[in-house]
């Protein structure tokens, strides 16, 4: 499982939802990922200290700031580009496996008290965001 986390002042997905200040999370589910992996990564992201304190240091998390989260499925994060010029997505989980893992990730954030909006799994989406900082972190 891979996630690209961007600190945002706002973000939206069409189709899907919209958020104010918080995190836009692009989430790729790989073959073999399970719900336990989703829980672990969601908890890590919720506690990731990438928001500034009063001194300007990264010392606050999404939980500390009462920020929101936009979670967007993105199988292209699982791309293998080792051979040739065309990425291979064979390592990405198929929808039957990926959807429950994706949903568990979002539900875990909700269970922590975070307001979560999502994109539409498998849809072609237009994602708009205003990256705050900019701050972008990739996690596995």
Summarize the structure.
The chain is an alpha/beta fold and 140 residues long. It has helices spanning 35-47, 62-65, 95-111, and strands at residues 2-14, 18-19, 22-28, 51-52, 58-60, 68-73, 116-118, 126-139. The longest helix has 17 residues, at 95-111.
List keywords for this structure.
140 residues, alpha/beta, six-stranded mixed beta sheet, two-stranded antiparallel ribbon, 3 helices
The biggest beta sheet is recorded as: 6 strands, mixed
Structural class designation: alpha/beta
Overall, the morphology is globular
Count of helix runs: 3
Tell how many strands the DSSP assignment holds. 8
Topology as a string of helices (H) and strands (E): EEEHEEHEHEE
Mean pLDDT, to the nearest integer, reads 97
Give the DSSP E fraction (strand runs of 2 or more residues).
Answer: 35-45%
In the predicted model, the low-confidence regions spanning at least 5 consecutive residues are none
Radius of gyration equals 15 Å
Helix content: 10-25%
Rounded to the nearest angstrom, the distance between the terminal CA atoms is: 6 Å
């Amino acid at each position: 499982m891979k996630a690209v986390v961007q600190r945002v002042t706002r973000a939206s997905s069409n189709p899907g939802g919209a958020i104010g200040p918080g995190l836009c999370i692009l989430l790729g589910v790989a073959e073999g990922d399970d719900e336990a992996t989703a829980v672990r990564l969601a908890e890590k992201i919720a506690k990731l200290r990438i928001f500034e304190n009063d001194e300007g240091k990264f010392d606050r998390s999404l939980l500390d700031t009462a920020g929101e989260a936009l979670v967007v499925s993105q199988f292209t994060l699982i791309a293998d580009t080792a051979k040739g010029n065309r990425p291979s997505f064979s390592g990405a989980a198929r929808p039957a496996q990926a959807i429950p893992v994706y949903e568990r990730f979002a539900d875990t954030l909700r269970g922590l008290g975070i307001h979560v909006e999502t994109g539409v799994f498998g849809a072609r989406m237009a994602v708009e965001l205003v990256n705050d900082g900019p701050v972008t972190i990739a996690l596995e």
